[in-house]
Amino acid sequence: MDSSLFLTADDRPISLGQALRYLEAAGKLEPVIWEIMRQHVLEKELQTLEDIDISSDLIEQVVIDFRLNNQLTDSASFQQWLAQEGLDYSTFRREIAFSLKLERLKAQVTEPNIQEYFIERKIFLDRVVLSRLVVEEQALAEELKSQILEDGARFEELVREYSVADDRIFNGMMGAIRKGTLPDVLRAAINLANPGELIEPVEVEGLWYLVRVETLLDATLDEQLKQELENELFEQWLEEKIQDMNVKLQVQF
Hints:
The chain has 253 residues and is an alpha+beta fold. Helix content is 55%, strand content 17%. The protein has 3 domains: 5-42, no CATH class; 43-125 and 221-253, no CATH class; 127-217, Chitinase A, domain 3. It has helices spanning 16-25, 29-48, 56-69, 75-84, 89-110, 114-125, 138-151, 155-162, 184-190, 223-243, and strands at residues 5-9, 12-15, 127-135, 173-178, 198-204, 207-217. Helix 5 (89-110) crosses helix 10.
């Protein structure tokens, strides 16, 4: 059999070189190579860190918790689930062990820097509750602001009458939003505002936003956010590892 044979389709062979050409033509070769290198680095790092030891008892406890959480307590339903996922029990255990080791590695890599990273990112992680009135013309936005500040018009009534955004039916209330997800021009204006303050109309993607700051919510490093930041830091660490490697594609295609 041809050692470069990758797979067959209707008994017709597709070589590894052909497969790579297909991926390149579809613009997907680079992401595939990146993912291969990512898994390679993970495997290498997990092998070198001897202090990451996952006991059989811990794996069994994770299996039990998984079965309880997914209502797979009886053997028949669990075996059926494994079959549906294309797994056997040994493979399932190996996947759990890998996940546990990965979490240990992630904690080891990120723990020394997580607090500093949180402080660095906090300005983007803080949340703000906003109400908005969105119109298509700057002049109208300015006029509506004047009606609110000088004539005592109610913001909510003007939103329902003039706003072109879907949230007008909720009086323009946008809910709690991370500052980092806001357009730069809007975030810059909000950073200078106090709760209850109406912000000058700003242009966002061709529309004019008249925004009222309702509440400012400071981010705290709770467990959910900590896990999110650990994932970000870990991916940055992996990316640096890969970029430092001398990678050469050995297959001609």
